[in-house]
């Protein structure tokens, strides 16, 4: 029997691990960066992602072929936004700015999603959601500036920062477009496969020019292993889970889970890159999780948590006197 509550629970569970999949892009992608150029890496990433999805998405692609062709302009635009700007654009931007600046700017996309929905769809923003967003933003800032106000005020913006700002806005628009009624009838994997192909097509001309200018194309097994890892984890798993979440709980709520990118990224950096964990990492993580729960948790769950906290704080009743 169809149970909307179970569907929402599944969506929230998948959204909880989605930022972990997205964060793997920095770790796995860094291994490929030494031997693969930015546009080539992004193009091969989405070609492989499409090929991985194809066996599962082929029946849906055949069934919805007319709908996909009718909306080819929207599919192409979303491929440009989600795979071009947020793929090769990010790889290219990291040549000009730091990961700290990029993370700070890119994690502004959930706020941009809410603003876009407020501007173009009349979405109301409640007080509880607003407080949750503020807490999450403070958590992000605590992590990316290492708890230092001086470091925050000293950030300088350059061409790479501008590219990250464009990528954040592109991701926000991409997320909002996923909720278009014209796409709701298509299964998640079918739509994602079409978007992956659209993204690869938008990247192809730039990849050809890049290979012609640099003469570089990945040939080593390590390079292809890294590309496959980015395609499977940071592309297929990450985007599929995110699109499913957008379809079930909406782009604004799904976008808020992207605040988990910094803490997940820090954990992966500690485990795989040997970086140290500090107090501000824990503080930022707690703020982000608190803001995320406050902004997205159903009202009944917060009421139950409040009631439970009240019972735990209430002193135990004194034993009745013996008679």
Characterize the biggest β-sheet.
none
Described by its quaternary structure, the protein is single chain
Give the number of DSSP strands. 0
- State which percent range the strand residues make up: under 5%
Key terms for this structure?
15 helices, 323 residues
Care to describe what's here?
There is one protein chain. The chain is mostly helical and 323 residues long. It has one domain. The chain contains 15 helices and no strands. It has helices at 4-33, 38-63, 65-70, 72-93, 99-106, 109-121, 127-144, 149-153, 159-177, 188-214, 221-249, 251-256, 261-273, 279-296, 299-313. The radius of gyration is 22 Å and the shape is globular. It starts with a helix and ends in a 10-residue tail after the last helix. The model has no long low-confidence stretch (mean pLDDT 81).
Topology diagram in text:
Elements: H1 4-33, H2 38-63, H3 65-70, H4 72-93, H5 99-106, H6 109-121, H7 127-144, H8 149-153, H9 159-177, H10 188-214, H11 221-249, H12 251-256, H13 261-273, H14 279-296, H15 299-313
Briefly characterize the structure.
The chain has 323 residues and is an all-alpha fold. It has helices spanning 4-33, 38-63, 65-70, 72-93, 99-106, 109-121, 127-144, 149-153, 159-177, 188-214, 221-249, 251-256, 261-273, 279-296, 299-313.
């Amino acid at each position: 029997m169809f149970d909307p509550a179970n569907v929402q629970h599944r969506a929230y569970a998948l959204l909880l691990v989605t930022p972990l999949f997205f964060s793997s892009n920095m770790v796995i992608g860094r291994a490929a960066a030494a031997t693969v150029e930015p546009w080539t890496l992004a193009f091969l990433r989405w070609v492989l992602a499409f090929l991985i999805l194809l066996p599962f998405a082929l029946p849906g692609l055949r069934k919805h072929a007319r709908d996909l062709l009718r909306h080819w302009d929207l599919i192409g635009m979303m491929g440009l936004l989600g795979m071009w700007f947020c793929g090769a654009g990010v790889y290219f931007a990291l040549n000009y700015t730091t990961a700290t600046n990029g993370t700070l700017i890119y994690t502004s996309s959930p706020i941009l999603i809410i603003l876009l929905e407020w501007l173009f769809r009349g979405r109301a923003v409640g007080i509880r959601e607003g407080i949750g967003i503020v807490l999450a933003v403070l958590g992000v800032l605590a992590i990316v500036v290492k708890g230092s106000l001086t470091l925050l005020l000293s950030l300088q913006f350059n061409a790479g920062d501008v590219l990250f700002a464009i990528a954040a806005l592109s991701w926000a628009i991409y997320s909002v477009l996923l909720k278009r009624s014209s796409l709701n009838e298509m299964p998640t994997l079918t739509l994602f496969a079409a978007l992956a192909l659209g993204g690869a097509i938008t990247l192809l001309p730039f990849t050809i020019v890049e290979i012609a200018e640099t003469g570089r194309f990945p040939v080593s097994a390590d390079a292809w292993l890294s590309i496959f890892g980015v395609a499977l984890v940071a592309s297929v798993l990450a985007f599929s889970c995110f699109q499913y979440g957008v379809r079930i709980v909406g782009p604004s709520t799904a976008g808020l889970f992207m605040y988990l990118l910094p803490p997940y990224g820090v954990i992966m950096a500690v485990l795989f890159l040997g970086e140290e964990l500090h107090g501000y990492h824990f503080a930022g993580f707690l703020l982000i999780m608190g803001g995320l729960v406050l902004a997205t948790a159903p009202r009944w769950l917060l009421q139950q948590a409040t009631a439970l906290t009240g019972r735990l704080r209430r002193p135990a009743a004194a034993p009745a006197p013996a008679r």
